[in-house]
Amino acid sequence: MKLTNKIGVIVDSFGIGVREGLKKAKEVGAQGVQIYAVKGEMDPDNLSPAARRELKDYIESLGLEISALCGDLGGHGFQDKEANPAKIEKSKRILDLAKDLGTNIVTTHIGVVPHDANGEIFDTMQKACEELSQYASSMGGYFAIETGPETSANLKRFLDTLSSKGVSVNFDPANMVMVTGDDPVVGVHTLKDYIVHTHVKDGIRYKEVDPREIYGSIGYEPMDHGKIAQMVASGEIFKEVPLGEGKVDFDAYFQALVDIGYTGYLTIEREVGDQPEVDIRKAVEFINRYK
Q1: Sign of dihedral through CA atoms 179, 180, 186, 192?
Q2: pLDDT reading at 17 higher than 90
Q3: In whole angstroms, what is the distance from residue 280 CA to residue 29 CA?
Q4: To 10 degrees, the CA torsion angle through 173, 110, 129, 119?
Q5: I want to staple 260 with a disulfide (CB 3.0 to 4.6 A). Which of 13, 134, 192, 219 is the partner?
Q6: Domain encompassing residue 11
Q7: CATH of the domain at 56
Q8: Residue 196: what are its φ and ψ, rounded to 5°?
Q9: pTM for this model (two decimals)
């Protein structure tokens, strides 16, 4: 098994801002970058057409490309009927920004997909994702749901209800290991028709947890990235660890990606730790061993 996929890095993992993070990504050996685009300088509302062109040119001048944008709006995902119109509109603007910057993928969390396909929450999420799926497809793009909040089988069942693959999958094996206990290798094969982007991270699960307590659901606290970062750092329920130190079987996981013909990015995400650059450099080296 030999990987030919390009390596990406989430710029925000460095914690030093977008421009410095872009330079650092190049230094550690990445070919591409993923950038959060929901607030601050990367909020679509704050980037004029000229600013978008300038940023795209700057990224290209570094010899990098954007693997995806992150458009995760947190909260209860797309479970709240009242909040959805504004969130859908914002998500469309992030998709527009992605296209302007040279990528066609925006990753996100949508909230935990309920097991009951006949319930109101499932219906609310399905309608929101159907609208986003059609919009993404109309521009040749993908709104990619990150794995972890539910099993791969439940996510596939949800995706199969949509009329196009404009809503697809950003596959994160560590989230599955840490939260649902789902097998990432089985997950890759289950979701093979939908995977358009991946995160590469590792983790350990110490005890079972209701995913709704992590990823937000109606009746539970809304999802908050800061809270999740504290949880994965504390190791009380689960813990994110450097690649190769957790429970993701990367030999089998990477083989599964090869088996399904996945040719997209392997994008390194490091949400915790006080030495992200060191960990990310090691992660690049770890992936390169498979090349």
Answers
A1: negative
A2: yes
A3: 10
A4: 110
A5: 192
A6: 7-289
A7: 3.20.20.150
A8: -120, -10
A9: 0.95
In a domain, 55, yes or no: yes
Domain membership flag for residue 270: yes
pLDDT at 204 over 80: yes
- What's the domain count of the chain? 1
Q: Which two tokens stand for residue 167?
A: 């809503």
For residue range 159-202, list pLDDT tens digits in order.
999 999 999 999 999 999 999 999 999 999 999 999 999 999 99
Using N-to-C axis directions, what is the helix angle for 120-138 and 84-100, rounded to 10°? 30
In tens, the pLDDT along 251-283 reads 999 999 999 999 999 999 987 777 889 999 999
pLDDT of residue 171: 98
Q: What are the structure tokens assigned to 184, written together?
A: 């990432």
Domain assignment present for residue 226? The answer is: yes
Location of structure tokens 């030919």? 4
13-41 burial, b for 16+ CB within 10 Å, e for fewer?
bbeeebeebbebbbebebbbbbbbbbeee
Residue 290's pLDDT is: 97
- Both structure tokens of 97: 């920004």
Its sign, for the CA torsion 237, 242, 246, 248, is positive
Residue 231 has pLDDT above 80, yes or no: no
